[in-house]
Amino acid sequence: MRKIVLYSDQIIKENRKIDYELLRLLNKKNPSIGYIPSCSDLTRKYFNPKVQYYNELGISNIQYFDLDKEYDETKINDIFQSDAIHLSGGNTFYFLYLIKKRNLVKSLQLYVEQGGILIGISAGSIILSKTIDMAQFGDEDIVGIDDRSSLGIVDFQFMPHWSDDESIKYLDVLKDYSKVKKTTIYACNDGDGIVIDGNDIKFIGNVMKI
To answer: What Pfam families has UniProt attached to this entry (predicted)?
Structure first.
């Protein structure tokens, strides 16, 4: 039974409806979250605000797992003991590169199949699709990825940080892409999101289907 929460962004008050859905899926007192950043956060500049954010939701057991400069192979199994795994925002291309470098694609797929909850934020949401093609509309490919195939945990593609300006800039392109690739794209404003609980998909906010 898949349990997935996709945010366009986090740490904004507009996300409260999505936060409540996350708490519903966790359904336990002080659940554990394994936080995986898209690149090393040596000073915890991005991690610490996330800790405070989750603390405000009543979640204090949050562990940081680096796949980059602070990578420790002995801690990998600990990630998958968490009630939920948080996949952070950042550069989607580099994040996918790290996940593949550490051979975590199948492990993350199995984690979801066995009931673990995945929390995707922006890049972390894009990575759950079959491909990270959506990243080309907001990220620079800083690692030169030839193979954009990704986790394939959801059967649609996720476009975060949607706005009126981006609608004008990318809408026609995304429509053409959707037709050619025969895929559905969900475009989310910050504050919007998608919650998957088994076969049920709930759209929070004004999510555009392309």
So the answer is: Peptidase_S51 (PF03575)
What domain range includes position 128? 3-209
Q: In what order do the strands lie in the sheet with 208-209?
A: 157-159, 185-187, 208-209
- For residue 53, the Cα-to-chain-centroid distance in whole angstroms is 16
Predicted confidence (pLDDT) per residue in 87-96, tens digit: 999 999 999 9
Please provide the distance, in angstroms rounded to a whole number, between the alpha carbons at the two ends of the chain.
26
Residue 10, domain CATH: 3.40.50.880
- The pair phi, psi for residue 7, each rounded to 5°, is -105, 145
Structure tokens at 207: 């999510």
d(CA 104, CA 102): 6
Using alpha carbons, list the distances in angstroms from residue 52 to 3, 16, 57.
Answer: 23, 15, 9
**Number of domains comprising the chain:** 1
C-alpha distances out from residue 162 to 58, 85, 120, 139, 170, Å:
29, 24, 16, 14, 10
